[in-house]
Amino acid sequence: MESVSEYLDSRGGRPGARISKFLALSKKRYPSGGRKPRADARRNRERILEAAKQAFTRSGADASLDDIAKQAGVGPGTLYRHFPAREELLRAVYRNELERLAAAGEKFAGTMPPVDALRAWLLLFVDAVAAKQIIAPALNTLLGDHNKVFEASYAQVHEALQRLVKRAAKSGEIRKDLDPNDLLRVLVGVANVASFPDWQPSARRLVDILIAGSRPPSAGV
Q1: One domain for residues 74 and 106
Q2: Do residue 169 and residue 203 come from a single domain?
């Protein structure tokens, strides 16, 4: 069976010659079989997601997609190739934040003492809540119940926190009857009822208060 270039060569030569030349140049430029474009695409996607998170958190879910592309250092066409619709970008940012939270639990546990790892994770959770406040309402409108869309990601987040709390409790640095969900409820509650723009610094201070309040009772008290 003849190749595409052979077929075109047999019907005039020039188109097939151009294709053969293009393929030869492509192999010379990307000898790894096209891995570089895929790596570039991943990096572009990551830059778009980070820029979108910042833009949505700062300006709301209606932030300009063209401005997001500019901030990410890509053209609008690149953004739309990755995310053809606004809701797809919103969904990707939201899922990326949840996956980042879940992965951070294991990373912190492997590099920090138990209580420090728990504190670092809770601070990261505060940042994720900030993005959720902007993105979740839009997803509710666009997708219906967004919680169903991200049910698996939510489960991973809760598992990450449970492991961090269990590890800290096992070390004796926090009380063994601490319910991990209580920590999340307090931080989410602060974000939901806050009417002032600087609720995040307050929530970050609250993380230290929660950690202090989770310490086991002193002996003899």
Answers
A1: no
A2: yes
**Residues 79 and 93 reside in one and the same domain:** no
The CATH number covering residue 66 comes to: 1.10.10.60
The pLDDT tens digits of the residues spanning 125-149 come to 888 777 776 666 666 655 555 566 5
Domain that residue 67 falls in = 35-84
The model carries a pTM of 0.68
Residue type, 48: I
pLDDT in tens, 88-101: 898 888 888 888 88
Q: Are 105 and 180 in contact (CB under 8 A)?
A: no
